[in-house]
Every structure is written in structure tokens, then in C-alpha cells.
């Protein structure tokens, strides 16, 4: 990647007296290879005859030097590498993985790396030649996901201010060995450009096995992605077992023990799992067991997937589910949904749903509308989760303009589209000071069956065209708003669930996911061509 800095390190030269220097000039040899790099030894050997010609002008030992190292080949690419001369590091029979004294918290990372590299793990003991040492360095510069890899003297030290950064350093080491056979000599200093980098899977419309989800976690971890979204409730299914409302759960679902296993693996891989119970729309599976809570229009017709937000029992049901799953999912983030509430897709919501319009005016004043009632619903659900320490998210078409009620400012906007009724351009949210996550459906939506003009995304388009600033369509927002864009997520939606198998989906997202990881870690124009990127991805399997 761009920004690679080069520092030259020259080999040491042996000093000798005049006669020896003259002989060395006549007979010196320079070899390039993988050896110790020690200086040539000259002078009188122990027990030799100082009067013999050999003692005065011996034939010098060859001095081996190395070309300057090149940056390790990884996905995502490291942001900086300081080159050096030396053999680099590769696993050997005498090497192992250790953690520095005071860094015992890195035992999980050390044991995983040792297993992957087929080395022994020796724990918190001094490093020796051939070892990889992991170390916490709280005083080092950079955020918690930054890291340094120092390769010198036949050993590697991976350090960072937090466990997550050290873990990402081990991913770099692992990939360097796969792509080049060795970790190059020198220093890697690396950190992500965006704090949120992830994958979202719609497990509501299509059942995915726990094993498939765990495989995606391992894939994400090697790509230094840190968030997995699970959209597990929708019109077609509710896919995680419930103790409070077992009547809503689909026949094919994940057990809570399976979810706990997924969460345990995610935690070891420094990935936060973000649950989503989408409301007040997309609740069809829940409402199938609670038909009395379905929203009905003025003609008495029920509205697909929409809960009647005017009934107190609706809030009670959803809040019971939120509290139940907040105990299961310990992560810091929670997705509230908030999108595509069908009452608001009508030409005149107030005429179509007079009961909601009347309640909105009663609660929020004479100028209030149905959209204000929907906004208040999302805010109220946020109020349930906020005391539990959750950071909250909602889809962008759940944020409305010109309302009496406005969405709480701490709710992050997951921007996915400008195509929905009432959808606003990204700049409106940014000018309000809101923070956004990029889920641009032009590039990052993998929709099974390609309905509604969707096309399966290609890694090449993401790699060559997209950046976190490209929030809607193909146009980037001004760079002045960059700090408000927290990152992005690649999304799998299962609208036509039978269009692909789990295995086909895994193959289909492989290169788009790698391109997304690259551009979230470093949004600059890649120096590696797409063809070269594809080739590298093949080497890193």
C-alpha cells in the first residue's frame, strides 16, 4: 500500500590491519542468501603460528548481505513497513510462541497462533532465538486496534496497546507466512482507518447453521473485521430460541447454546456480534403468533409485517424480547431496525391510519403525524436498551425530516439506500451531526435471487470504486464529514432464500468481502492491481 517507508540498515564490516585489508580487497566475495548475516572473522586464530603466511593474510570468510526487505503481502495490506536487511523469520523446530511478562492476558492469542503455525506455546517466559513474542504496550501510540510487528535477530515481536491490536498483528504474521514463506525483516506499524468493519447476515429469511456462521467469523478475523450483524427476526422467520415467547420461534432456528458457542468464538477473535430485532416493521413472524397486534388500515386490512404501535401491548411484547436477548448478547452494539414501516409507505398515512394519526396528535401536539409516532417508537426501544450499556443503531429510512419528534442523537445511522419512500440523502444526516455506518446497497448488498434490480456485487467494483465516503450510489460525500462515518458492513440479504445454498453464498461473497475489508482498513487507492489482489487472495486461502 501507499505510505511505505524505507529505512536502510547496512551490515557491519570487520576491522582489520593494513595487510588483512589489502588481502580482503583482493579476494572479497559477497553472497546473497538466508544466513546469519554475521561479519567475517579475521585475525590470528588461537594456537596458530604468527610467522606463517596464513597468519598474516588469511583468505577472508565470505560476508553475506541481504536486499532490503519488502512489505509482507496481506489482506488488508499493511499501512507502513520499514524495510531492513536480514533473513526475516520463519517457523523452525526450535521456535515457539511466548508472551511477555505482564502480558499474560494474551494467552488466548498466543495459543491460537501457536496452533496455526504448528509451534509450541511456552507461556510467559523470556523469548529466545526463533520465537514469536506477544506483548502488551499500553504506552505505545495508536488506538486499541493498532499494532507493531518487529522482525529482527531471528525472532518476531508483536505488540500493541490492547489485545485486539496484538491479535491483528498475529493475522499479519500468519498471512505473511502463507504468501511469502517468511515474515520480512523490519518493522510493520499498522492500524485501521475505520473503527467499524463488518459483515451482516440475514439469518431470519434463511436458516444458517452455527458451523457456517463460525466459519464466517474465522474468515472475518483473518481480514481484521470486527463486527458481525445477525438480523434474526423478519416476516419470514424468527431464528433464535426464546424462553419468554417460544411461540414465535421458527422450526429451523439456532438454539441458545449454539448462539453462546458463536459468541464465545467471536470474543476470542475480537469480533462483536450485533443482534437485530427489526421493529416496528419486519415483525411478520412474531405477529403470526400474535395476530391481535397487527396494524390494520382504515378499511380493516392488515399490513404485512407491521405491528400496531398504537397498542401498549405491542411495546410490551417487543420490550420483553429486547430484554431477553440483551442477556444473551453481551456486545456493546444493538440494531433497532426502524426501516420500512409500511404505514409510512402509503400516500397519506394519516388518512390510511386515522387511529395512529389521532394518537400522534394526542401525544405530541396538533402538528404531529404518524411518522412522529414511529420515531417515538424507535426512541422508546432505545430507552429500554440504553441503561444496559448498548450503543444503538437504526436503518437510515427510519429517520424522518421535518418531524415534531426527532430520533435520539446517539442512534447511529446505518445508511443503506436512497431508493425507499422518504429516504434522505446522506448529507442531511451528516449536517445534523449524526454518525453513519456505510452499508451502501449499490456496492455492499448481496441479495439472494437479485430481486428489485439488485445485482450480486463484485469485489472489483468495491476495490476500485468504493470508499467509506461513498454512502449512496457512486458519489462520495465531502471529506470534511469523514470523521462522522464510522465504517461499513457488507450485507447478505436472503429475499429469495432458496436461490443459493450456504456454500454458494460463502463462495459468492469471498472476494467482495476481501475488497470491503481492504477499503475499510485503508480507503486510499490500492497500489496492487485487482488481478494481483485476486492472486494474493488465492495464496492466502
Structural class, judged by helices and strands? Answer: alpha/beta
N-end to C-end Cα span: 21 Å
Could you name the CATH topology of the largest domain? TIM Barrel
**Uncertain regions: pLDDT < 50 for 5+ in a row?**
1-60
Number of domains: 2
| Count of helical stretches | 15
As a percent range, the share of helical residues equals: 25-40%
CATH top level of the largest domain is: Alpha Beta
InterPro entries: Beta_hexosaminidase_sua/sub (IPR025705), GH (IPR017853), GH20_Enzymes (IPR052764), Glyco_hydro_20_cat (IPR015883), Hex-like_dom2 (IPR029018), HEX_bac_N (IPR015882)
Pfam families: Glyco_hydro_20 (PF00728), Glyco_hydro_20b (PF02838)
Protein name: Beta-N-acetylglucosaminidase
GO molecular function: beta-N-acetylhexosaminidase activity
Draw up the topology in text.
Blueprint: H1 18-27, E1 30-32, H2 53-56, E2 63-65, E3 80-83, E4 96-99, H3 107-117, E5 120-123, E6 132-136, E7 147-152, E8 155-160, H4 163-180, E9 186-190, E10 196-202, H5 210-222, E11 227-233, H6 256-268, E12 272-279, H7 284-288, E13 294-296, E14 302-307, H8 312-328, E15 333-337, H9 349-352, H10 354-364, H11 370-385, E16 391-395, E17 412-415, H12 426-431, E18 436-438, E19 445-447, H13 459-465, E20 485-493, H14 502-521, H15 530-539
Parallel strand pairs: 1-2, 4-5, 4-6, 6-8, 10-11, 10-20, 11-12, 12-15, 15-16, 16-17, 17-18, 18-20, 19-20
Antiparallel strand pairs: 3-9, 7-8, 7-9, 13-14
Helix pairs in contact: 3-4, 5-6, 8-11, 13-14
Main traits of this protein?
8-stranded parallel barrel, 2 domains, Chitobiase, domain 2, disordered N terminus, alpha/beta, 30% helix, 15 helices, 7-stranded mixed beta sheet, 541 residues, TIM Barrel, 20 strands
